Amino acid sequence: MSARLVQIFLPEAEIGSLEAILARHSRRYWREIVPGGQEKYSCIVQQRYAERLLDDLEAAFGALPTFTAYVAQLEAVFPRMLETAETELPAPGALRPPTALERFFSRDRISTDELYDDIEESLHITPNYLLTVLLSAVIAGLGMRSGQTAVVIGAMIIAPLLGPTMGVALAATIGNAKLGRKAAATLLVGSVFAVLAGVAVGLSVAIDPLVAELKNRTIVQPADIALALACGGAGVQAFSRGASLTLVGVMIAVALVPPLAATGIFLGIGQPQVAGSALFLFAVNLVCINVAGIVMFLIQGLPPKNWRMTGGILGVWLFVLLLLASLMAGRVVLGFGSLESVGRYLAGTG
């Protein structure tokens, strides 16, 4: 069982309230005396209980100017913190007991605060972020141009759009408007730079638009919706368990960066209609990833601040997805959007 070390600093007058809170969340905690009239408590808490502990601490002591809490991941704890029916801590009275589904999916999930910190660090529009986006899109574009799938996958390891994409889904889930605006702005800027990088590739090297790696980014099929939903769900599942950002980035970027790079390439070679198809694929993938991300966050038990707001945002995403799916079906029925029609257009015969 994964565990966290939580260190708490607060005034001596609050010791009684703190110990009452710790007793509900941890069976291993101890007190240390520190200079300056402060008290330091350290406790070892199972990962699944860390979020409830932090919520209680914030509610009880968040207004105190001298209150501070630190959270650190523990590699090992001895004796081991084995969870059984006898050792499992009861849920706080103010919270409903978790459902069986939430218990199953949230068992190894890191806390919302840890998720927030991991994502917030990647939402700054810095020269390093912009350069990473450009390099990722250039590598993806050159890989698609030459038909080398391995090169395209290599570009995904850079994973520049991971943080903003996860940030949009997390913000919608917990109802954090500030985080949502920041994530959306970072994602928008990164997407624009990825398209510009694709334009540069299209203008600077010879492009064969009939290469399969490029042509496939202009075709939207039902399988693409399934792929994007799977990428979003798997990405959130891995990310919320503290998995490698590179691993999660591959899951997300495979559905975002190549269509953006392809959009730029087709603009660069003077085929805006096909570029629109690649951009349409990006839009479908982005919506699917967010829908799957929000649903997976909710399944894992992330607590929305306002269920009406979260449900409304999810409803909007689902409506947009339905609209895009309808457009996709119409494009295929009308002819443009199928493999054959795109091939004819790229060959100049349609």
Descriptive notes:
By secondary structure, this protein is of the alpha+beta class. The chain folds into 2 domains: 95 residues, Alpha-Beta Plaits; 235 residues, no CATH class. The protein is 63% helix and 9% strand. It contains 15 helices and 4 strands. Strands 2-3-1-4 form a 4-stranded antiparallel sheet. Helix 1 runs antiparallel to helix 2 and helix 12 packs antiparallel against helix 13. The longest helix is centred in the middle third of the chain and has 28 residues. It is elongated and about 70 Å long. The termini are far apart.
SSE topology:
Layout: E1 3-11, H1 15-25, E2 28-34, E3 38-46, H2 47-61, E4 68-74, H3 100-106, H4 112-120, H5 127-146, H6 149-156, H7 162-174, H8 177-204, H9 212-215, H10 222-239, H11 245-253, H12 257-268, H13 272-299, H14 307-334, H15 339-347
Antiparallel strand pairs: 1-3, 1-4, 2-3
Q: How many domains would you count in the coordinates?
A: 2
Outline type:
elongated
Total strands: the figure is 4
SSE series = EHEEHEHHHHHHHHHHHHH
Name the average pLDDT. 79
Portion in strands: 5-15%
Rg: 24 Å
Instruction: Please outline the major beta sheet.
Output: 4 strands, antiparallel
Structural class: alpha+beta
Helicity, as a percent range: 55-70%
Low-confidence runs: 333-340
Number of helices: 15
Strand order of the largest sheet: 2-3-1-4
The end-to-end distance, rounded to whole angstroms, is 60 Å
